Amino acid sequence: MIKNRYNSSIGLIKWSLIRHKFYIPAFVIVQILLSVAVIYGFSFITNAVDNISRTFLCTGAITMNIIAVTCVLSPQIVSEAKQNGVLDYQKTLPISRIGIIMSDLLIWGVTSLPGICVSMIVGTINFNMNVQINIVSCLSLIFIITALTFFGFSIAYLFPSNIMALITQVVMIGGLLFSPIVYSKDRLPLWMAHIYNYLPFVPVSNIIRFSLFGLDNFNIMNYIVILFWGFISFLSSMYVLTRRK
Question: Which pLDDT does position 185 carry in this prediction?
Answer without folding.
Answer: 82
